[in-house]
Amino acid sequence: MHKVRPDMDIGNNIRKLRKNRGLTQDQVVAKLQLAGLEISRSVYSRYEINRLNIRVSELVALQKIFACQFNDFFEGL
Fold first, then answer.
1. What does each C-alpha distance from 49 to 8, 9, 34, 35, 66 come to in angstroms?
2. Mind listing the pLDDT tens digit for each residue in 13-70?
3. Maximum Cα interatomic distance, the chain, rounded to a whole number of Å
4. How far is Cα 50 from Cα 34, in angstroms, rounded to an integer?
5. Which residues contact 25 (CB under 8 A, 6 or more apart)?
6. What is the per-residue pLDDT for 9?
7. Residues 41 and 25 sit within 8 Å (Cβ to Cβ)
8. 25, 65, 70, 75 from 41: Cα distances, Å
């Protein structure tokens, strides 16, 4: 399973995308779980503060949830 290395801005970009869509962390986690990914709120929150590597499969799911481009996750890197 491939992972994206945490970076100073990727977590901030994920948080920004979530807030711009008007979603709470709980709502995003629920959508990820509906997509078949086993993830808890505590794990998701660690993505947003760059404390945990994010799996590519989760990044793909977030791209669909946020209706964004993959470049949006890496803006400013």
1. 9, 9, 23, 23, 18
2. 999 999 999 999 999 999 999 999 999 999 999 999 988 888 899 999 999 999 999 9
3. 30
4. 24
5. 18, 41, 44, 45, 48
6. 79
7. yes
8. 7, 16, 22, 24
Under DSSP, the state recorded for 6 is P
Token digits of residue 31: 């959508």
* Mean pLDDT confidence for 65-77: 92
The one-letter code for the residue type at 12 is: N
Of 60 and 76, which is predicted with more confidence?
Answer: 60
Query: Contact 44/32 with Cβ under 8 angstroms?
Result: yes
Residue 50 is predicted with a pLDDT of: 86
Residues in the chain: 77
CA distances for 15 relative to 1, 3, 36, 54, angstroms: 24, 18, 21, 13
